Automatic annotation (TrEMBL):
Residues 21-164 form the Lactate/malate dehydrogenase N-terminal domain. This is Malate dehydrogenase, mitochondrial. GO terms for molecular function: L-malate dehydrogenase (NAD+) activity. It comes from Danaus chrysippus (African queen). Pfam families: Ldh_1_C, Ldh_1_N. One of its GO terms (biological process) is tricarboxylic acid cycle. The active site is at 196 (proton acceptor). The keyword NAD applies. Residues 166-325 form the Lactate/malate dehydrogenase C-terminal domain. Gene3D superfamilies: Lactate dehydrogenase/glycoside hydrolase, family 4, C-terminal, NAD(P)-binding Rossmann-like Domain.
């Protein structure tokens, strides 16, 4: 009997196909459309829900339906009816709001995205148990704490399942590092900590593998290049913000969460609730299992330059987090 139970456990863990429902809120946005495209081909996803208030949402869903896939696809264009469709979602991705574009002021951009997250957070707080939530809508440093505060005050909230999607910070840092070191990016590992903004992101070149002998000047130039990479894209795209790489990061995040849900403990670069530095939230490499975040990777022997960056980043990150935490006071 004992051997039979072990065999059944093995079969349930390894031989039964994974079944997960993913909802993309803001699925008709520029980023959301690319996320939907990439998720449409993921065999572990049995149902993909695309939600958006934009009028062309039905067209986006129709477009995606022409991609051969074993998963079900559903589009939801009415905000009032969303809850009954996403009840069984394992993962909810926030990709909506307004992207930085020519003619859009920073204030308009922030207010629109804050409103999007406020509405979404209130709806998610009514779900029990809470699904895994990944926020890609900018500015992540502020909107993730905002979402958490709203959910705490409106219903269900599990900090272990709330993520700011910052995996792209690590991916692009490794891509740029590989170019600098003339290495294969697939074989490079560069830890990134701090936050998800130009003044809070810290690439830890002292911990990078394989090692590359960069002098202090080149290290500072590289750090500046990584930190200003979004601005460089904004300029090169004539005022339009990054979308393809952001979508790629959101899908990489989703795949890692699915692995965790499937019983495989995994590591994900993410912005999560963490008070190691007194900021309440911090981005880094976190271990995740079926129940959510377990712990964040810690690093020792940072360079003096990295310590200086960390000190300044913490100060800025506290301000950005506090702005999000005050969301309810501003309503």
């Amino acid at each position: 009997m004992f051997q039979t139970k072990k065999l059944l456990h093995f079969i349930s863990r390894h031989c039964i196909s994974r079944n997960y429902q993913v909802t993309v809120v803001g699925g008709a946005s520029e980023i959301g459309q690319t996320v939907g495209l990439l998720l449409r081909t993921q065999p572990a996803i049995t149902k993909l829900i695309i939600f958006d208030d934009l009028e062309h949402t039905p067209g986006v869903v129709l477009d995606l339906s022409h991609i051969p896939s074993g998963s079900a696809l559903q589009g939801v264009a009415s905000g009032n009816s969303l809850e009954k469709f996403w009840t069984d979602s394992s993962i909810i991705l926030a990709t909506g709001g307004v992207a930085r574009s020519p003619g859009t002021s920073k204030e308009t951009w922030f207010n629109a995205n804050a409103d999007f997250i406020k509405t979404l957070s209130s709806r998610i707080s009514k779900m029990s148990p809470m699904p895994f939530v990944g926020i890609a809508t900018e500015p992540i440093n502020t909107l993730v704490p905002m979402a958490a505060e709203i959910m705490k005050n409106h219903g269900e909230y599990d900090p272990k399942k709330m993520f700011g999607i910052t995996i792209l910070d690590k991916l692009k840092t490794e891509a740029l590092y590989a170019a600098e070191a003339e290495k294969d990016p697939q074989n490079c590992n560069v830890p990134v900590i701090g936050g998800h903004s130009e003044k809070t992101l810290i690439p830890l070149l002292s911990q990078a593998e394989p090692k590359c002998n960069l002098d202090e000047k080149r290290i500072q130039e590289f750090t500046s290049k990584v930190r200003s990479s979004d601005s460089a894209i904004l300029k090169s795209k004539c005022g339009w913000s990054p979308s393809l790489s952001v979508a790629y990061g959101a899908v990489a995040f989703t795949k890692s969460i699915i692995d965790a849900l499937d019983g495989r403990t995994t590591q994900i670069q993410a912005y999560v609730e963490n008070n190691d530095f007194g900021t309440s939230y911090f981005s880094g490499l976190v271990t995740v299992d079926q129940n959510g975040v377990k712990e964040m990777q810690r690093y020792s022997h940072l360079s003096s330059y990295e310590c200086q960056l960390l000190e300044r980043s913490i100060e800025q990150l506290r301000k950005e987090v506090l702005m999000g935490k005050k969301a309810l006071e501003l309503e």
